[in-house]
Design brief:
Blueprint lengths: L10 H9 L5 H19 L2 E3 L2 H16 L11 E5 L26 H8 L3 E6 L33 H8 L6 E5 L5 H7 L2 E4 L19 E6 L2 H11 L17 H6 L11 E5 L10 H16 L3 E5 L7 H16 L17 H12 L2 H14 L5 H21 L5 E5 L14 H6 L5 H6 L2 E9 L6 E8 L4 H14 L11
Parallel strand pairs: 2-3, 2-4, 7-8, 7-9
Antiparallel strand pairs: 1-3, 4-6, 5-6, 5-10, 9-11, 10-11
Helix pairs in contact: 2-3, 5-6, 10-12, 10-13
This protein binds glutamine.
The site of glutamine has 13 residues, from loops.
């Protein structure tokens, strides 16, 4: 325990400490396990941790290092994993009862890549059931608390991932983002969260929520760590037919170059007026945005007002497209093909019981909505119309990126809210307003801590958005902001 500095816990800092032999991977994993045993009772970031698997992987890494053959710079570094990403032999409950008995038969491609570079998949992180939610309150196994204020939510659906990073339980974590589920919890917990360009990270082994929107990405304490994990998991995968035929990203070099150059100088950054409308954001978020714009200008960026005119339709389009896809994707969890079977009087009754008892209220709501918008008679009016508007939203971004290198927006209308504060589902849906358009359009975005809300002392996230495949530009700009303007380094939880 003594040698591990939890205050600076991160992917790069752990890799350096391992290389310098400050501690072994076994010592690191053991210290993390002790920390989690002591403090996770109050946070509930983890659904479970397979201690033996983590320790065995750490021993294997230590043996590789002792033999003088580490596979990569990050050999022996643990990474937390959201419970909807397959790790062979581990749970894959998606925080729902229906998949509670399941153990993954294979690794997701993102996990295969991490393992092949020596990273250690570590524990199963809590989430909203089937990634549907914005607060982690929809987990069938109880919510996760925000380590910065345990009376508040960590965001969602990757709330466990964000909380584990903020509490310093893990050096980084994987999450998934369908409509903001990496960026919004990162913002609520003061972490960095990247939603990669659609197709850049394989979805093979990610339990599908809405296949045309889902992407796996990193949550990390700083931009450099997020870049390291993104580089490790990205690249073409024949197992995912929507995977882009491109090699893995190399953003870490772009991020590290920020030590020598200022990528913001001369960059054109657009502020979409629709994201700053009257009453849309709290005064604390507005203040951080104003300060961020001033700081970016001081660093040489040309900040200009732009327009994404179809923004107002994004939430409506998302809740048609995402629920339609979810209703199809979740049809397989019926107690016969997949999932926990509840015995009924006959086959139909078995379906009713398995799905009725196996799914939580929010998941059922989405399946009903999705089935409705796809049903004959309503398909044209809702689903087809939504797809057409989706194209217009995508074109808004294409248009604006003819004039700008990046966009700057808020991530959330306000800081992390209190448990139970958004009990009306519609209110909860509307809180995704700034993150959703990006998933519909497919390009990449990152949430980084932009500043602090004066009233609550909680972090406020800012979102940088880039065109397709421009993650290197995106993360370099984020790193420059982090280096020159604001970085957020909370103390380890419980210290
Ligand atoms: N909060 C959004 C929803 O409930 C987004 C979730 C996600 O990105 N997985 O659908």
């Amino acid at each position: 325990m003594a040698n591990v500095d939890f205050a600076t816990l991160g992917v790069v800092s752990c890799a350096e400490a391992l290389a310098q032999k400050k501690y072994s991977s076994r010592e690191l994993v053991s210290a993390m396990l002790e920390n989690i045993r002591r403090s996770d009772g109050r946070i509930h970031a983890f659904l479970n941790v397979d201690e033996n698997a983590a320790l065995a992987a750490a021993d294997a890494s230590d043996a590789r290092r002792a033999a003088g053959a580490p596979l990569s710079d990050f050999d022996g570094v643990p990474i937390g994993v959201k419970d909807n990403i397959s790790v062979e032999g581990e749970t894959l409950s998606c925080a729902g009862k229906i998949l509670a008995p399941v153990r993954s038969p294979y690794d997701a491609t993102a996990i295969t890549r991490l393992k092949s570079q020596g990273f250690i998949p570590f524990g199963r992180l809590n989430m909203d059931e089937f990634a549907m939610g914005s607060s982690c309150e929809n987990s069938a196994f109880g919510p996760t608390a925000n380590p910065l204020d345990v009376g508040r939510v960590p965001g969602g659906s990757s709330g466990g991932s964000a909380a584990a990073v903020a509490a310093k339980f893990v050096p980084a974590a994987l999450g998934s983002d369908t409509g903001g589920s990496i960026r919004q919890p990162a913002a609520f917990c003061g972490a960095v969260g990247l939603k990669p360009t659609y197709g850049r990270v394989s979805r093979s082994g990610l339990v599908a929520f809405a296949s045309s929107l889902d992407q796996i990405g990193p949550l990390a304490p700083c931009v450099e760590d997020a870049a390291a994990v993104f580089d490790a998991i990205s690249g073409h995968d024949p197992l995912d037919c929507t995977s882009l035929e491109l090699p893995g990203a190399k953003t870490l070099a772009a991020v590290r170059a920020v030590a020598r150059t200022n990528p913001l100088s001369g960059m054109k950054i657009g502020l979409p007026g629709e994201y700053f409308g009257a009453g849309g954001i709290s005064s604390g978020v507005a203040k951080v945005m104003d300060d961020a714009v001033a700081a970016l200008r001081k660093l040489g960026a040309d900040v200009v007002e732009v327009s994404l005119p179809h923004t107002e339709y994004a939430v409506a389009v998302y809740y048609i497209v995402a629920t339609a896809e979810a209703s199809a994707n979740l049809a397989r969890f019926d107690g016969i093909r997949y999932g926990d079977r509840k015995k009924g009087a006959d086959l139909v009754d078995t379906y009713f019981k398995s799905r009725g008892e196996g799914f939580g209220a929010e998941v059922k709501r989405r399946i009903l909505l999705g089935t409705y918008v796809l049903s004959s008679g309503y398909y044209d009016a809702y689903y087809l119309k939504a797809q057409k508007v989706r194209t217009l939203i995508r074109r808004d971004f294409e248009e604006v990126f003819r004039k700008c290198d990046l966009l700057l927006t808020p991530v959330t209308p306000d800081v992390a809210f209190r448990f139970g504060e958004k009990s009306d589902p519609l209110q909860m849906y509307l809180s995704d307003i700034f993150t959703i358009a990006l998933n519909l359009a497919g390009n990449c975005g990152v949430s980084i801590p932009g500043g602090v809300d004066a009233e609550t002392d909680l972090p406020v996230g800012i979102q940088l958005i880039a065109p397709d495949l421009a993650e290197d530009r995106l993360l370099a700009a984020a790193a420059a902001y982090e280096k020159n303007v604001f970085s957020f380094r909370p103390a380890p939880f419980g210290c």
